[in-house]
Amino acid sequence: YLIENSRTQVKISVTDIVDGSIIEGADIQILDSEGNVVEIDGEELSWTSSSEPHVVEGLIPGETYTLHEDSVPDGYILAPDTTFTIDEDGTVISSAPVTEDGSILIQDEKTSVSIGNIFADDETVLEGAVIQLIDKDGNVIDEWTSGTGAHVITGLHTGEIYRIHVEKAPEGYESFDDVTFALKPDGTIDTEKTSADLKDGVLLVKETKKTDQVKIEFKVSNVDENGNLLTGAEFVLTDADGNVIVAQWTSEISVKDLSSVLVPGKNYILTLKKVSENYETSQQTFRISVAEDGTVSVDGKAPSNGTLTIVNKKKSTSTDTNKGSNTGTNNVPKSSATAANDVKTADETNTLPFVLAEMTGLICMIGAAMLLFRRRRDQNIDNR
Question: Is 70 exceeded by the pLDDT of residue 330?
Answer without folding.
Answer: no
